Amino acid sequence: MTIIKRRHFLGGSAMIGAGLLAGGLPRLANAQSAEITVTAFGGVWEEAVRTCFVAPFEAKTKAKANVSLGGPPQWLAQVEANQAKPPVDVLIMTPDLALTAAKAGLVEDFTVDKIPNLSKIPIELTDSVMGKGTLFDYGVGGITFHKERVTNPPKSFAEFVDRVAKGEFVASVPSISYAVTPIMLIWAMAKALGGGVDNVDPFFEAMAKMKHNLVFWGGPNDFFNHLSSGEADVGIYFDGRTWNHYDSGATWIDFINPEEGGSLNGVAVQKPKNANPLAWDYINEVLDAQNQTKFADIMNYGVTNTDVVYSDKLKPRITPWQKTAFPPYEQIALVRNEWVDRWNREIGR
């Protein structure tokens, strides 16, 4: 797929009179505080956000960025409840909730005049959330395995299903309690096996074939424990988390992007309406190539600025987003509850 860059989206020059300075300089409008609240997940995510985005933002603007920890549903609810004065100025969202925010009119349009570094983000990743945000990093849901026990791992979803069904090894897959399961497992496997959003029968048929050789994980650490203990040999998991385990000493673990393409699970950044205009400067740092390079080195996940050059260590680990299966997030949201109900009836775990 050819990457299209959004270099002149909506054109127009920056409006100094409105507090917007060309080139992404600080927007210190008289009525606005030189302090914003941004969002981050906990753990290593918080460390990466503070190091890669907050620090350069504060250095350039001399403003302060406070970090609010939590999750997308919580942040979105807070913004919806106080639209005139949102409690956070920058949102970190899963794509489905980013679309919810966009459709509800809670967030602003992303344009190059507001965010110069947006020109370096493939337009497809911005369009995926209706242009009211963009994806800045992503993980791939693929096949992770214990390479000492699985010396010839399956290279595709189809091969994975066939060999698990035959009892060649036990597989660990995410349970329906895990939030991303409808995308990384149900949709991705259905698509790989000839179905899609409108037909997930191939997925449920595959699960029925494999049922005697499956265990389920409800959280990422559960999966790692399954492989390390020998309870499972292979499974569906994320690339970045796989490499984090590897770097922590579990050098027996490895990852494969299935031939059909593992699901792209992106993270979007958005600005609520009526949030402090300084949020644009912060978002510009989130989309900066140098900052994203540092973020990728910490997180072991792919990033989206096309000028990013991965380190020799990271480059073989990162799956280009063009080689993933790009989920139709909006369509999945419409049928997600039906899938969950069917899972509960037919699989139950």
Alpha-carbon distance between the two ends: 38 Å
Largest sheet: 8 strands, mixed
Order of helices and strands: EHEHEHHEHEHHEHEHEEHHEH
Average pLDDT metric: 90
Helix content: 25-40%
Number of distinct beta strands: 10
Overall spatial form: globular
- Structural category: alpha/beta
Radius of gyration: 21 Å
Q: Which percent band covers the strand fraction? A: 15-25%
Low-confidence stretches: 1-26
Number of helices: 12
Structure description:
InterPro entries: TAT_signal (IPR006311), TAT_signal_bac_arc (IPR019546). It comes from Shinella oryzae. Keywords: Plasmid, Signal. This is Extracellular solute-binding protein. This protein is α/β, with parallel strands linked by helices and 349 residues long. Helix content is 37%, strand content 16%. The chain contains twelve helices and ten strands. The strands form two sheets. Strands 3, 4, 5, 6, 7, 8, 9 and 10 form an eight-stranded mixed beta sheet that branches. A two-stranded parallel ribbon has the order 1-2. Helix 1 links the parallel strand 1 and strand 2 (64-69). Helix 1 crosses helix 10 and helix 6 crosses helix 7. The radius of gyration is 21 Å and the shape is globular. The two termini are 38 Å apart. The relative contact order is 0.19. Mean pLDDT is 90; it is low at 1-26.
